[in-house]
Write a structure and sequence with these properties.
The chain has a domain of about 40 residues. The termini are far apart. The protein is elongated and about 70 Å long. It has two helices and no strands. The chain is mainly alpha-helical.
């Protein structure tokens, strides 16, 4: 099996593995949820900042305003 196919298979299996861990008890569920929040919130924030920077690169400095 190639490395790429193993990576894809592990990505497919990951939600089931996380669900198995989260269903073991309330402490495990809280840990999985807090981990998801600690990874998800920065991901959303940095994606927002990256998209804002990309939009800033392609928009003109002024929308029709002329300076003397």
């Amino acid at each position: 099996m190639s490395v790429l196919s193993e990576l894809i298979q592990s990505i497919i299996d990951m939600p089931g593995e996380f669900a198995d861990v989260a269903l073991q008890g309330p402490v495990e569920a809280i840990l999985v949820l807090s981990g998801a929040i600690l990874v998800g919130l920065p991901l959303v924030l940095f994606t927002y900042l990256l998209l804002g920077a990309a939009v800033d690169l392609v928009t003109p400095e002024s929308f029709g305003a002329s300076y003397p």
